[in-house]
Protein backbone atom coordinates (compact mmCIF):
# COMPACT_ATOMS: atom_id res chain seq x y z
CA UNK A 1 0.00 0.00 0.00
CA UNK A 2 1.40 3.40 -0.98
CA UNK A 3 1.66 6.31 1.42
CA UNK A 4 -1.14 8.12 -0.45
CA UNK A 5 -3.48 5.12 -0.26
CA UNK A 6 -2.72 4.66 3.44
CA UNK A 7 -3.42 8.34 4.03
CA UNK A 8 -6.77 8.08 2.23
CA UNK A 9 -7.76 5.00 4.31
CA UNK A 10 -6.81 6.77 7.54
CA UNK A 11 -8.81 9.85 6.55
CA UNK A 12 -11.83 7.68 5.71
CA UNK A 13 -11.52 5.88 9.03
CA UNK A 14 -11.27 9.17 10.86
CA UNK A 15 -14.31 10.46 8.99
CA UNK A 16 -16.30 7.33 9.87
CA UNK A 17 -15.31 7.65 13.55
CA UNK A 18 -16.30 11.30 13.59
CA UNK A 19 -19.64 10.49 11.97
CA UNK A 20 -20.19 7.72 14.52
CA UNK A 21 -19.47 10.13 17.36
CA UNK A 22 -21.83 12.69 15.85
CA UNK A 23 -24.55 10.05 15.52
CA UNK A 24 -24.08 9.02 19.16
CA UNK A 25 -24.22 12.63 20.30
CA UNK A 26 -27.35 13.23 18.24
CA UNK A 27 -29.02 10.12 19.68
CA UNK A 28 -28.07 11.01 23.24
CA UNK A 29 -29.33 14.56 22.74
CA UNK A 30 -32.64 13.46 21.30
CA UNK A 31 -35.50 11.27 22.35
CA UNK A 32 -34.89 7.58 21.53
CA UNK A 33 -36.99 6.61 18.50
CA UNK A 34 -39.57 3.93 19.28
CA UNK A 35 -38.40 2.03 16.22
CA UNK A 36 -35.04 1.46 17.97
CA UNK A 37 -36.53 -0.09 21.09
CA UNK A 38 -35.47 -3.61 21.95
CA UNK A 39 -38.13 -6.31 21.72
CA UNK A 40 -38.76 -6.46 25.47
CA UNK A 41 -38.82 -2.67 25.67
CA UNK A 42 -41.38 -2.54 22.85
CA UNK A 43 -43.60 -5.08 24.58
CA UNK A 44 -43.27 -3.19 27.88
CA UNK A 45 -44.31 0.03 26.14
CA UNK A 46 -47.29 -1.68 24.49
CA UNK A 47 -48.34 -3.41 27.73
CA UNK A 48 -48.17 -0.16 29.68
CA UNK A 49 -50.44 1.59 27.19
CA UNK A 50 -52.85 -1.36 27.16
CA UNK A 51 -53.08 -0.92 30.93
CA UNK A 52 -53.71 2.82 30.55
CA UNK A 53 -56.44 2.19 27.99
CA UNK A 54 -58.36 -0.52 29.85
CA UNK A 55 -58.19 0.92 33.35
CA UNK A 56 -58.75 4.50 32.19
CA UNK A 57 -61.77 3.61 30.07
CA UNK A 58 -63.41 1.45 32.74
CA UNK A 59 -62.91 4.12 35.43
CA UNK A 60 -64.16 6.91 33.14
CA UNK A 61 -67.36 5.06 32.19
CA UNK A 62 -68.17 4.23 35.82
CA UNK A 63 -67.53 7.80 36.98
CA UNK A 64 -69.61 9.13 34.09
CA UNK A 65 -72.51 6.90 35.08
CA UNK A 66 -72.05 7.97 38.73
CA UNK A 67 -72.26 11.62 37.65
CA UNK A 68 -75.68 11.07 36.08
CA UNK A 69 -76.95 8.82 38.87
CA UNK A 70 -76.18 11.44 41.51
CA UNK A 71 -78.06 14.24 39.74
CA UNK A 72 -75.69 15.47 37.04
CA UNK A 73 -77.52 16.35 33.84
CA UNK A 74 -75.27 18.51 31.65
CA UNK A 75 -74.26 16.58 28.55
CA UNK A 76 -71.77 19.25 27.55
CA UNK A 77 -70.10 19.22 30.97
CA UNK A 78 -69.79 15.44 30.66
CA UNK A 79 -68.31 16.07 27.21
CA UNK A 80 -65.80 18.69 28.40
CA UNK A 81 -64.29 16.43 31.07
CA UNK A 82 -63.43 13.83 28.42
CA UNK A 83 -60.65 16.08 27.10
CA UNK A 84 -60.18 18.89 29.66
CA UNK A 85 -57.35 17.18 31.56
CA UNK A 86 -54.94 17.44 28.61
CA UNK A 87 -52.66 20.00 30.40
CA UNK A 88 -51.32 17.19 32.62
CA UNK A 89 -49.72 15.73 29.49
CA UNK A 90 -47.38 18.69 29.27
CA UNK A 91 -45.43 17.18 32.19
CA UNK A 92 -44.26 14.04 30.35
CA UNK A 93 -44.14 16.00 27.09
CA UNK A 94 -41.49 18.44 28.32
CA UNK A 95 -39.63 15.74 30.25
CA UNK A 96 -39.06 13.57 27.18
CA UNK A 97 -38.95 16.23 24.47
CA UNK A 98 -35.54 17.13 23.08
CA UNK A 99 -34.32 20.31 21.36
CA UNK A 100 -34.17 18.44 18.06
CA UNK A 101 -36.91 15.88 17.42
CA UNK A 102 -35.93 12.73 15.55
CA UNK A 103 -38.00 12.30 12.41
CA UNK A 104 -37.97 9.79 9.60
CA UNK A 105 -39.14 12.46 7.19
CA UNK A 106 -36.74 14.83 5.47
CA UNK A 107 -39.69 17.12 4.71
CA UNK A 108 -41.77 17.61 7.87
CA UNK A 109 -45.37 18.77 7.39
CA UNK A 110 -46.07 22.49 7.38
CA UNK A 111 -47.65 24.19 10.35
CA UNK A 112 -50.82 24.79 8.32
CA UNK A 113 -51.22 21.08 7.59
CA UNK A 114 -50.72 20.21 11.25
CA UNK A 115 -53.25 22.83 12.33
CA UNK A 116 -55.80 21.45 9.88
CA UNK A 117 -55.25 17.92 11.21
CA UNK A 118 -55.54 18.96 14.85
CA UNK A 119 -58.57 21.17 14.22
CA UNK A 120 -60.42 18.56 12.15
CA UNK A 121 -59.75 15.66 14.50
CA UNK A 122 -60.39 17.81 17.58
CA UNK A 123 -63.76 19.00 16.26
CA UNK A 124 -64.79 15.45 15.38
CA UNK A 125 -63.66 14.37 18.83
CA UNK A 126 -65.89 16.98 20.50
CA UNK A 127 -68.93 15.76 18.55
CA UNK A 128 -68.05 12.15 19.30
CA UNK A 129 -67.66 12.84 23.02
CA UNK A 130 -71.07 14.54 23.11
CA UNK A 131 -72.68 11.52 21.45
CA UNK A 132 -71.06 9.27 24.03
CA UNK A 133 -72.28 11.54 26.84
CA UNK A 134 -75.81 11.56 25.43
CA UNK A 135 -75.76 7.78 25.20
CA UNK A 136 -74.54 7.32 28.77
CA UNK A 137 -77.40 9.47 30.10
CA UNK A 138 -79.97 6.85 29.12
CA UNK A 139 -77.96 3.61 29.40
CA UNK A 140 -76.47 1.74 32.31
CA UNK A 141 -72.68 1.47 32.46
CA UNK A 142 -72.71 -2.20 31.46
CA UNK A 143 -75.18 -1.76 28.58
CA UNK A 144 -73.29 1.30 27.35
CA UNK A 145 -70.05 -0.69 27.26
CA UNK A 146 -71.64 -3.53 25.32
CA UNK A 147 -73.11 -1.17 22.72
CA UNK A 148 -69.70 0.41 22.25
CA UNK A 149 -68.37 -2.99 21.14
CA UNK A 150 -69.74 -2.12 17.71
CA UNK A 151 -66.89 0.36 17.24
CA UNK A 152 -64.58 -2.55 16.45
CA UNK A 153 -66.71 -3.58 13.46
CA UNK A 154 -66.81 0.02 12.22
CA UNK A 155 -63.06 0.33 12.69
CA UNK A 156 -62.45 -2.86 10.73
CA UNK A 157 -64.29 -1.34 7.76
CA UNK A 158 -62.54 2.04 8.01
CA UNK A 159 -59.14 0.38 8.46
CA UNK A 160 -59.68 -1.64 5.32
CA UNK A 161 -60.55 1.36 3.14
CA UNK A 162 -58.48 4.11 4.80
CA UNK A 163 -55.44 2.30 6.24
CA UNK A 164 -55.26 -0.66 3.80
CA UNK A 165 -55.55 -3.09 6.71
CA UNK A 166 -55.40 -6.71 5.55
CA UNK A 167 -58.02 -8.98 7.07
CA UNK A 168 -57.26 -12.42 8.48
CA UNK A 169 -59.57 -15.11 9.80
CA UNK A 170 -58.53 -14.21 13.36
CA UNK A 171 -59.36 -10.53 12.84
CA UNK A 172 -62.73 -11.32 11.26
CA UNK A 173 -63.66 -13.74 14.05
CA UNK A 174 -62.71 -11.20 16.71
CA UNK A 175 -64.74 -8.46 15.04
CA UNK A 176 -67.81 -10.66 14.73
CA UNK A 177 -67.70 -11.99 18.29
CA UNK A 178 -66.96 -8.65 19.99
CA UNK A 179 -69.55 -6.76 17.93
CA UNK A 180 -72.43 -9.24 18.27
CA UNK A 181 -73.30 -8.04 21.78
CA UNK A 182 -74.64 -4.70 20.51
CA UNK A 183 -76.87 -6.49 18.01
CA UNK A 184 -78.31 -8.63 20.82
CA UNK A 185 -79.11 -5.48 22.80
CA UNK A 186 -80.90 -3.96 19.84
CA UNK A 187 -83.46 -6.80 19.76
CA UNK A 188 -83.74 -7.22 23.52
CA UNK A 189 -87.42 -6.96 24.54
CA UNK A 190 -86.65 -6.02 28.15
CA UNK A 191 -83.73 -3.59 28.06
CA UNK A 192 -81.99 -2.43 31.18
CA UNK A 193 -82.12 1.27 31.80
CA UNK A 194 -81.48 3.58 34.73
CA UNK A 195 -84.38 4.60 36.95
CA UNK A 196 -86.70 7.10 35.28
CA UNK A 197 -85.56 6.41 31.72
CA UNK A 198 -88.31 5.39 29.30
CA UNK A 199 -87.92 2.91 26.47
CA UNK A 200 -87.91 5.74 23.94
CA UNK A 201 -85.04 7.47 25.74
CA UNK A 202 -83.25 4.14 26.02
CA UNK A 203 -83.53 3.85 22.23
CA UNK A 204 -82.11 7.38 21.85
CA UNK A 205 -79.21 6.43 24.10
CA UNK A 206 -78.62 3.29 22.05
CA UNK A 207 -78.58 5.22 18.75
CA UNK A 208 -76.28 7.94 20.16
CA UNK A 209 -73.83 5.34 21.48
CA UNK A 210 -73.90 3.47 18.18
CA UNK A 211 -73.29 6.68 16.20
CA UNK A 212 -70.50 7.64 18.60
CA UNK A 213 -68.87 4.25 18.08
CA UNK A 214 -68.90 4.69 14.30
CA UNK A 215 -67.46 8.21 14.51
CA UNK A 216 -64.85 7.11 17.05
CA UNK A 217 -63.72 4.33 14.70
CA UNK A 218 -63.36 6.87 11.90
CA UNK A 219 -61.29 9.18 14.12
CA UNK A 220 -58.90 6.34 15.01
CA UNK A 221 -58.37 5.45 11.36
CA UNK A 222 -57.78 9.10 10.46
CA UNK A 223 -55.24 9.39 13.29
CA UNK A 224 -53.38 6.35 11.99
CA UNK A 225 -53.40 7.83 8.48
CA UNK A 226 -52.00 11.10 9.86
CA UNK A 227 -49.17 9.27 11.63
CA UNK A 228 -48.30 7.23 8.55
CA UNK A 229 -48.68 9.72 5.72
CA UNK A 230 -48.16 13.17 7.23
CA UNK A 231 -46.17 13.20 10.47
CA UNK A 232 -43.90 10.22 9.84
CA UNK A 233 -42.12 10.59 13.18
CA UNK A 234 -40.78 7.82 15.38
CA UNK A 235 -40.82 9.39 18.85
CA UNK A 236 -43.35 9.26 21.67
CA UNK A 237 -43.50 13.06 21.73
CA UNK A 238 -45.57 12.99 18.53
CA UNK A 239 -48.11 10.80 20.35
CA UNK A 240 -48.40 13.36 23.11
CA UNK A 241 -48.59 16.20 20.59
CA UNK A 242 -51.50 14.54 18.82
CA UNK A 243 -53.33 13.98 22.11
CA UNK A 244 -52.62 17.45 23.53
CA UNK A 245 -53.61 19.53 20.51
CA UNK A 246 -56.67 17.52 19.47
CA UNK A 247 -57.86 17.59 23.09
CA UNK A 248 -57.26 21.35 23.21
CA UNK A 249 -59.46 21.87 20.15
CA UNK A 250 -62.12 19.46 21.44
CA UNK A 251 -62.20 21.22 24.83
CA UNK A 252 -62.55 24.68 23.26
CA UNK A 253 -65.38 23.49 21.00
CA UNK A 254 -67.12 21.81 23.94
CA UNK A 255 -66.84 24.88 26.19
CA UNK A 256 -68.26 27.11 23.44
CA UNK A 257 -71.12 24.66 22.98
CA UNK A 258 -71.75 24.62 26.75
CA UNK A 259 -72.34 28.38 26.73
CA UNK A 260 -74.19 28.38 23.41
CA UNK A 261 -76.63 25.74 24.71
CA UNK A 262 -77.15 27.69 27.98
CA UNK A 263 -76.41 24.53 29.99
CA UNK A 264 -73.88 26.52 32.01
CA UNK A 265 -76.75 28.28 33.81
CA UNK A 266 -77.82 25.03 35.47
CA UNK A 267 -74.34 24.09 36.74
CA UNK A 268 -74.53 25.92 40.13
CA UNK A 269 -77.83 24.19 40.98
CA UNK A 270 -76.46 20.90 39.67
CA UNK A 271 -73.46 21.16 41.98
CA UNK A 272 -75.56 22.17 44.99
CA UNK A 273 -78.05 19.33 44.51
CA UNK A 274 -75.51 16.61 43.71
CA UNK A 275 -76.40 13.48 45.65
CA UNK A 276 -73.04 13.02 47.38
CA UNK A 277 -72.30 16.69 47.94
CA UNK A 278 -70.35 19.49 46.32
CA UNK A 279 -66.91 18.06 47.03
CA UNK A 280 -67.93 14.74 45.52
CA UNK A 281 -69.27 16.58 42.46
CA UNK A 282 -65.92 18.26 41.84
CA UNK A 283 -63.92 15.09 42.50
CA UNK A 284 -66.17 13.11 40.16
CA UNK A 285 -65.56 15.53 37.30
CA UNK A 286 -61.81 15.73 37.98
CA UNK A 287 -61.52 11.96 38.27
CA UNK A 288 -63.47 11.46 35.07
CA UNK A 289 -61.23 13.93 33.22
CA UNK A 290 -58.02 12.25 34.41
CA UNK A 291 -59.38 8.78 33.62
CA UNK A 292 -60.38 9.74 30.08
CA UNK A 293 -57.01 11.38 29.44
CA UNK A 294 -55.19 8.28 30.68
CA UNK A 295 -57.33 6.15 28.39
CA UNK A 296 -56.74 8.47 25.43
CA UNK A 297 -52.96 8.36 25.78
CA UNK A 298 -53.11 4.57 25.69
CA UNK A 299 -55.36 4.64 22.62
CA UNK A 300 -53.20 7.06 20.62
CA UNK A 301 -49.96 5.34 21.61
CA UNK A 302 -51.26 1.94 20.46
CA UNK A 303 -52.40 3.47 17.17
CA UNK A 304 -48.90 4.87 16.73
CA UNK A 305 -46.90 1.72 17.50
CA UNK A 306 -49.33 -0.91 16.16
CA UNK A 307 -52.56 0.12 14.38
CA UNK A 308 -55.96 1.68 14.96
CA UNK A 309 -57.62 -1.72 14.64
CA UNK A 310 -55.40 -3.19 17.36
CA UNK A 311 -56.04 -0.18 19.61
CA UNK A 312 -59.78 -0.57 19.12
CA UNK A 313 -59.63 -4.31 19.74
CA UNK A 314 -57.86 -3.74 23.05
CA UNK A 315 -60.48 -1.17 24.09
CA UNK A 316 -63.17 -3.84 23.75
CA UNK A 317 -61.37 -5.88 26.38
CA UNK A 318 -62.91 -3.44 28.85
CA UNK A 319 -66.20 -5.19 28.09
CA UNK A 320 -65.00 -7.88 30.44
CA UNK A 321 -64.11 -5.30 33.08
CA UNK A 322 -66.65 -2.46 32.96
CA UNK A 323 -69.80 -4.63 33.29
CA UNK A 324 -68.23 -6.55 36.17
CA UNK A 325 -67.22 -3.31 37.85
CA UNK A 326 -70.75 -1.96 37.26
CA UNK A 327 -72.11 -5.13 38.85
CA UNK A 328 -70.15 -4.32 42.01
CA UNK A 329 -70.52 -0.54 42.06
CA UNK A 330 -74.05 -0.05 40.70
CA UNK A 331 -75.48 -3.55 41.39
CA UNK A 332 -76.25 -4.27 37.73
CA UNK A 333 -77.45 -7.83 37.33
CA UNK A 334 -76.73 -9.78 34.17
CA UNK A 335 -78.39 -12.87 32.73
CA UNK A 336 -79.49 -14.13 29.32
CA UNK A 337 -78.49 -11.83 26.49
CA UNK A 338 -78.30 -8.86 28.87
CA UNK A 339 -81.49 -8.58 30.93
CA UNK A 340 -81.14 -6.59 34.07
CA UNK A 341 -83.03 -4.88 36.83
CA UNK A 342 -81.53 -2.29 39.09
CA UNK A 343 -81.96 -2.60 42.84
Automatic annotation (TrEMBL):
Keyword Transport among record annotations: yes
Molecular function (Gene Ontology), one example: purine nucleoside transmembrane transporter activity
Subcellular location: Membrane
UniProt feature coiled coil, ranges: none
Entry GO CC: membrane
Chain residue ranges for the region called Disordered: 1-27
Signal peptide: none
Top-rank taxon: Eukaryota
Transmembrane spans: 42-64, 76-96, 108-127, 136-161, 167-188, 200-222, 242-260, 281-304, 310-330
Pfam families: PUNUT
InterPro entries for the chain: PUP_plant (IPR030182)
Membrane-topology annotation of the record: Multi-pass membrane protein
Record key words, sorted: Membrane, Transmembrane, Transmembrane helix, Transport
Family: Belongs to the purine permeases (TC 2.A.7.14) family.
Matching PANTHER family: OS09G0467300 PROTEIN-RELATED (PTHR31376), PURINE PERMEASE 11-RELATED (PTHR31376:SF2)
Protein's name according to its UniProt entry: Probable purine permease
UniProt organism field: Cucurbita moschata
Name of the gene: LOC111464447
Amino acid sequence: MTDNQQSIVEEEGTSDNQQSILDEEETSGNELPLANLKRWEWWLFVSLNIFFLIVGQAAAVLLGRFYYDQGGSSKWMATIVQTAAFPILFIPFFLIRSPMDTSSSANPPSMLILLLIYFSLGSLMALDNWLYSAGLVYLSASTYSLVCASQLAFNAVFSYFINSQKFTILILNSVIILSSSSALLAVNDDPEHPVGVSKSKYFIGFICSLAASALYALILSLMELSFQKVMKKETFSVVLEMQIYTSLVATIVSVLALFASAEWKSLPNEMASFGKGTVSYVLTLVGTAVAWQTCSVGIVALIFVVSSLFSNAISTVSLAITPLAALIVFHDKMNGTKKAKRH
